[in-house]
From TrEMBL:
Name of this chain's protein: Sensory rhodopsin transducer
Pfam families: ASRT
Organism: Lysobacter korlensis
InterPro entries in the cross-refs: ASRT (IPR009794), TM1070-like_sf (IPR036698)
Length: 125
């Protein structure tokens, strides 16, 4: 039974990693997260490309999401080909060789009263 759902290309138009945090790391470190669901029977080969306002895109960042699994990827933990700069606006395009579902979450802990937002990414095709 094929349980794949989702799309092969997603976009998150808004991204920003605050420069500082209030609380113990890593749990309360300010971050952006890309939550990826692969409900298919095949591992998903996923690439991320990061876009900026004032310079060329960076990527691809490559990862695998195992079949019938989920993966929560913190953007501030990406290092190859380069770390994503803090205090810089960016956007991302996520592409996969099998259908996936992508959700975006941000934890902003710059002050003691934390802010958490989440939204489904834009399914491009």
């Amino acid at each position: 039974m094929d349980t794949s759902i989702g799309r092969r290309r997603w976009a998150i138009a808004e991204g920003y990693i605050p420069g500082h945090s209030n609380g113990p790391e890593p749990a309360m470190e300010s971050h952006e997260t890309c939550c990826i669901l692969n409900a298919s029977d095949r591992d998903a080969q996923v690439t991320l490309t990061i876009y900026f306002e004032d310079r060329e895109p960076v990527g691809p960042y490559r990862l695998t999401v195992a079949a019938r699994r989920t993966r929560h990827l913190r953007f501030n933990e990406l290092t190859d080909p380069e770390p994503i700069p803090k205090e810089t606006g960016y956007a991302s395009v996520i592409e996969s060789d099998v259908p996936i579902v992508v959700q975006h979450t941000r934890l902003d802990s710059r002050q003691a009263e934390n802010a958490l937002i989440t939204t489904i990414a834009f399914a491009a095709d």
